[in-house]
Amino acid sequence: MKRKMSAVFSLMFSMLLTGIAFSAVPPSITPVDVYTLSSDSPARIAADNEGKIYVTIPENGLVKVFSNNGLSLGSLNIVESPLGIAIDQSGRLYITDTINNNSGVYDSDGHLFFKLGSGDGEFAFPNAIAVSVTDKIYVTDSALNMVKVYSTSDGAYLNSFGSNILRYPTGITIDEAAGEVFVIDYNNLYIRIYDLDGNLKRSIKGGGGMMGAGKLLMPLGLALDSTRLYVTDAFNSVVAVFDKTNGAFLSYIGNYGSGPIEFKTPSGIAIDKDGKMFVSNTNNQRIDVLGIDVFNNIKISPAELDFAVYAKGPSVTQAVNLISDVTSTTWDATVSEPWASLSAYSGTTSSSVDVTVDPSGVLPGNYNVDVEFKTSSGVVALLKLNVEVIMPVLSIAPSSFNFTYQKNSTNFPSGALLISSIGAVLPWSGYTTAEWLTLENVAGTAPSTTGISVNNNISSFALGTYTTSIGIDAGTNVIGSPASVSVTVNVVDAGDIKVTTNLDEALFNITGPQNVSGSGKSWTETNVMTGTYTISFDHISGYVRPYSRSFTVESGKTAEIIAEYTGKKAVTHIVAGSGGSKGKELSVLTLTGDKVFSVVPFHKSESVRVAVGDLDKSGTDKIAVTDYVRSLKVYSFEGTELASLELSKSYKGADIAVGDIDNDGKTDILVAVKNSNITSIEQRRVVKVFNYSDGQLQEKAVLFTENIMNEFSIALGDINGDGILEVILADSDNIRAFSINAAESRLTEIWTVKSGSKYLPRIAAGDIDDDGLDEIGLSITQAISKKVEDPVIRILNG
After folding, report:
1. SS3 for 192?
2. Between residues 653 and 65, the one the model is more confident about
3. Residues near 367 by beta carbon (within 8 Å), at least 6 away in sequence
4. What is the value of pTM for the model shown?
């Protein structure tokens, strides 16, 4: 009894173990890839033995083809409205057409072998299709509620089944190992399992309604692996998974949405031999690739390589990377053309492979080369090579030269001609027929450079334009050979202008026979018309601009202008001269009013007139003073008397101003005096110019005289912004401005205005608003009435 019970127990235990070993479990799903279809909505899907994917697009009449790793391989436009699709072991395509109600058998390029049965109209609504290794074709006819069976050899009708139970059958697939046909009973929400002869074996109930414990509402597509059945539910946007043997519900894959493992109306489904699931994600317009449990896959990056190589040229190599998502995948590789090669023809992911194209023996043209990386199960990941083989090219740069030769110049223009090649090393020869042009090298090998220059023969040519060409010949069968380079030389009556300043911010305008402008520390304008020009400089805040000047441009020569912006010095002291009965002092004060020193420069004076400037170009200001009679002295800022000069006894009312009136960089002293002794040279009023150097004051020139009796005052300032000082003279009647011609010791009146002063105005000039123009300051006395006078400070713009 114990032995019998032990035997029974052992048998039950063995059965339990057997059940555990082969019972289906929910799959582990890994998102692998997404194949985007743009505006196309995929329906059914099938995979061939090498993992190539075929997708039907009913509304566009297309079957789209992809490599297993997602490369688009084109489209087949062979059926008016393709829906169901299957592929047999030899790669033949089986496609249903829902408009013409037929099913056809095609080769992989879309050529028709035959149509099933009677052809068009054989079906009421041919939905899905499957093919068995037993040489039978199974087609679900949804409208007739049956599965029709045909021969793979000629498409002859064999039989049908299911009409007694099926209501609108849709998806169909075959379990070759079990010899079973799985059919979706759409309206009844069942999966029916038949043997290959059409005998019903069992059913898997899909329930109905929304998701939950195996419920299905719109089942469309079927796929099988070794233990599981996968069903697409278009309404619930999931893939339902069942144990294919006992029908037990295992899990749902996915949710509604557009993200990873999310669906909108999933319809077709297929599984390749590497364990990857392909789902037609219809309303997301894409194919989702999902890995099941432990699967193999090869991703190639990049999946396409473009080669541009040259006939008879060198080999070109590029690298690709092979990777897998879950496990290392072994692979073997083949290449469709002998002139393309790999650094390795087998390996395991992850790995890097060099791809080399050798065009040395390849004719020019465009080639498509396939590199297949095949897994152990025979699934192929495809690398596409787009190869363009072209002829070598001769390239010349520049394509033309335009030279200018300035008549009388000893500088002859030249240039460099770059001769290069693409695809091959090219020998070349060069030539020209022009006597005025020299080619440095007449032969060479590209890439190389040869100099070209206009030679001395051009010196004898008249003004005008001369044109020739240079030829570069690299032989026949070379694109761009022979090449021609145009050379033009213009013989002109022109020169150059070079301006050097001390500031990057410098701006200047040049006017004359032609007008130009420039900027910066170093500026050059070439080939300027000959003639006389004037340059003027723009104001820069904080600087005194260089003076305007005239210059001449001569043919074949360079006119050089050197100009310096002088930084305005910060005011550090107040220098004042007193007068009248309250004192005759020269005082120097700090800006806060503290006295630095004071001296009495003259024992007899009407008042002390002062001016300050760098009189000896030492970089240190000096103080020039007059006694408002005829004496002139110079003091240092330490109060030391440096020089003195007594003017003619016929002079009185000496006023003073300082400035560089001849732009030699040294400050001049201008003294305005009243003269009682008229001569042929001097009249009632005199303006003289003095220089100070080495402790001496020396008269330089008489700048101005006029025959007016009353006293006058003087100031210097750049009132028109040309960088050149003007003289301003004032008396009780008028204020007058004069331009200075230092070379000819002459003043020319610019303008005159009424002074409006009862007495002699005191006058000064300076740029008080930093606009580059000196303003004129007047101290005048206005008569309000016979007994009331009003002192006023007036500011005039120049």
Report:
1. strand
2. 65
3. 337, 385, 386, 387, 388, 389
4. 0.57
Question: 3-state DSSP call for residue 377?
Answer: coil
Q: Where are the alpha helices (DSSP H) in 671-775?
A: none
pLDDT at 689: 97
The pair of three-digit structure tokens given for residue 272, joined into one six-digit string? 């390749």
Q: What are phi and psi of 115, to 5 degrees?
A: -105, 155
**Scanning the structure block, which residue is given the tokens 């049908």?**
160
Q: What is the 3-state secondary structure (H, E, C) of 276-322?
A: EEEEEEHHHCEEEEEEECCCCCCEEECCEEEEEEECCCCCEEEEEEE
Among candidate residues 442, 440, 418, the one with its CA nearest the CA of residue 429: 442
pLDDT at res. 425: 81
User: What single-letter amino acid sits at 339?
Assistant: W
CA 151/CA 231 separation, integer angstroms: 27
Is residue 330 within 8 A of residue 348, CB to CB? The reply is: yes
The 3-state DSSP class for residue 23 equals coil
Which helix (H) or strand (E) element contains residue 334? strand 330-335
Give the β-pairing of 746-754 and 668-675: unpaired
Distance of CA 370 to the CA centre of its chain: 36
SS3 assignment for 193-221 = EEECCCCEEEEEECCCCCCCCCCCCCEEE
- The CB density around residue 208, as the number of other CB atoms within 10 Å, is 10
Hunting for tokens 């080619």 — which residue is that?
439
* Segment (H or E) for 618: none
Q: Nearest to residue 395, comparing CAs of 438, 443, 447, 351?
A: 447
Q: What percent of the chain has pLDDT over 70?
A: 95
> Which DSSP category does 464 fall into?
E
User: For residue range 247-263, what is the model confidence (pLDDT) as tens digits?
Assistant: 999 999 999 999 999 99
Identity of residue 471: G
Pairing of strands 543-544, 516-519: unpaired
In angstroms, the Cα distances linking 692 to 616, 627, 700, 715 are: 6, 18, 10, 18
Q: Which of 37, 61, 52, 35 is nearest to 93 (CA)?
A: 52
Cα–Cα distance for residue pair 266/217, rounded to 1 Å: 12
20, pLDDT greater than 70? no
What number of H helices and E strands is found in the chain? 1, 71
Residues in the chain: 798
Please state the rounded mean pLDDT for residues 535-563: 93
Element (H, E) at 15: helix 2-22
Per DSSP (E only), the strands in 636-745 are 641-646, 651-659, 668-675, 685-693, 696-706, 713-717, 726-730, 734-741
Mean pLDDT of 42-48: 98
Which residues have a Cβ under 8 Å from the Cβ of 41 and sit 6 or more positions away?
57, 59, 282, 283, 285
Domains and CATH numbers, the chain: 38-292 (2.120.10.30), 299-390 (2.60.40.10), 393-492 (2.60.40.10), 494-567 (2.60.40.10), 573-797 (2.130.10.130)
What is the spatial distance between Cα 323 and Cα 296, in angstroms, rounded to a whole number?
10
Among the listed residues 567, 528, 568, 534, the one whose alpha carbon sits nearest the alpha carbon of residue 548: 534
Contacts of residue 283, Cβ cutoff 8 Å, sequence gap at least 6: 41, 264, 265
